[in-house]
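Fold sample X.
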Amino acid sequence: MDELELALAAARSGDESAFATVWRELHPRLLRYLRGRGEENPEDLAAETWMHVVHGLSTFEGGVAEFRAWLFTIARHRAVDRGRARSRTPALVSVPDPVEVVRHVPTTASAEDEAAGNDATSRALQLVATLPPAQAEMVLLRVVAGLEVADVARLLDKRPGTVRVGVHRALRSLAESLGPALGRTAEGGE
């Protein structure tokens, strides 16, 4: 059993320091996923997600892979619920387009930038935001969140083959868009 498996088992029994270990390991990926979705206030949404996790942790069954899938399922459902609530509430101010939010990630160093990773991570999330929404969601869940194909398929209510093909096409599209910037083709040639 690795350290995260042990920490998860102890956290389910109420060990706060073990929960902190689980949080430290998975929270940065959760924030990157929520930022990649273009969510407003991703930190708030992540906090809501973790609160939901805390309330249900004692009844959770499974290992780290199942926990990761559960965590990102909660986050996605919270994000969808928040989007629905926003669409039902008359806007008093204009809400920026989520793609534009991701494109204008601040370049000055801050605690938020540190949690999101380095500048390369921000640029990668900006590129993912250029994909069609369904492909972007698949890439975020599979690559950024690190979920298995079967978990992504279950979460998005798609067949595993559809997810594999969608992720492959999305990554190929990203490679093609990067090719000219790197001075080569998607196949790796000059």
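Fold sample Y, listed below.
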Amino acid sequence: MAHTLDSPDAGTPVRNFQINFGPQHPAAHGVLRLVLELNGEVVERVDPHIGLLHRGTEKLIEAKTYLQAVPYFDRLDYCAPM
């Protein structure tokens, strides 16, 4: 059986949708999260949030030498290893 959606009245205001597009799980790796404002299927505005991999690296390496800290730097952005 086919379902149809009633079209909204001409006087009814249509709101834009705001959705999060980014890491699928808080523990998942990801360096970019986008907050999108949509008008139907058209993206009206994007608010990027960059750098979700911060894990207190400064605190982890403050008592280490440079050579001991290199592996931490490599893991800061898994998309761009050294």
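Sample Y note: Helices lie at 57-61, 66-76.
Also: The chain has a mean pLDDT of 75.
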